Amino acid sequence: MVKYTDIQDKEKDFMKTIDDSAYVLGTNDYARSLAKRILELLNIECIEKRKKIERTPRILVFSCQHTQATDLNVIFEEIEEYIEKLKEQNNGRIVLLTNGFERYKYEIKYSRSYSIQKAIVTFFKQQAIDLAKKNITYNNIEIGYFPERDKSFSINNEWSYFRRLAIRRCVELADIKSTMSFLLSESSRFMTGETIVLDGGLEMNQVTPPIKEGIIKKSTSILVHPKENQREFDLTGKVAIVFGCSSGIGKATVLELAKRGACVSLIARRKEKLEEIQKIIDMSKTKSLVLQKDVKCQKNIENAIIETWQFFGKIDIFIYVAGIGYVTDELNDENDYKTMYETNYQGYSTALKMLFKKWKDNNIRGVGLGVSTIDVNFVPSYGLASYSVTKAAMTQLTKNISLLGAKYGIRLNCVAPGYIDTQIMNFTTDSYRNQWRKKIPMGRLGNPEDISGVICFLVSDASDYLVGKNLIVDGGYSLIKVPELVDE
Known about the structure:
Structural class: alpha/beta
Strand content: 5-15%
Largest sheet: 7 strands, parallel
Shape: globular
Number of helices: 13
Radius of gyration: 22 Å
């Protein structure tokens, strides 16, 4: 049934925070002042210790930049005091701001400050499971090279550091602000215990080779951050192509894209499902295109891109949600594996490589995203070995090509959903599905809308400094290392 309410009000603030005030704690004056500046940019009132308040804010921000504390118990007691107040709200957000440049220096030379910071990170992560049961998320923003903070550059020069980055610029306040806005919004409600690393690709641990003079012309213009005065989460004027969007996460994603003003090309096998979604989108002023294609065929992928480009005149955003998995007590037979390989990896690879070339040739700052799985990061799910392998290949391809694309302003990332309540999860019994639910600290399976908001964050200018990431969105599932015994 078509509902206009699914698409209306696209002009609203998509990243509206859950509260207009926040507790601010930190390891020193600079750490607290940085957190306050970011929150003030988001029009959030900052409340510090000992200030009398009438109500408890649902937001706690702890900033850990330069740490010289000798008694960690004092810090932990202070945090616990506010966490207990936050639990009374039964809904909230905790964001930890940490110093990613300390990690880089620690890998070269021992840093006492970084060791203390790691202890604080571990403390918060251990709290995350109990917090999730109260509908409180905890996530970490790790801030890379930030000139105002990292004034004493201990290596030869900035360029030798930037050669380790896919995006060769330092972190800007706008990067931190937009990431904070996302984590304090409802769009991040199913993500907890995750670290968003604002490091321009340093985490991939690569050094780009020097290029001989005259072979490649250097250009830095594409690395300039988008203007701060534009709406970071608004996608008006953008064109998105989405593969695998007739239901589930794909459907939720195209509706979210349309709400944010993007024109959308819908690609899937079930044309009638796509046309139903198109009717919803048509109720707004947003344009859409329906193309019935089977992604197992490379030619279909190529034609979908060509037809979309001809219809809209460009493609800015590429999202690949298409995926299939066959559960078995044995190894998957050759036909099943071939189908999963063609759907999960080959289709993605074909589309990504074709769009990469078109973006590069047309000087477009394209953004690509693949929907991966938490199986790539942790122990694979039982009976899904071949599925996990194809998704791992997709994720690794994203990381590799993201290193090449960043210098052209092309960003590639993945999102790794946990157990989401979609048709693909109907392969087992209700009793077994209940075991999954019990292991998720938030106490429920995810829904497609829990993922679509994260996807739209990653393809928007708000995530301009994120590249080569695989962001986990699982309600805290991956925080628990030892599985419960199942009833069956």
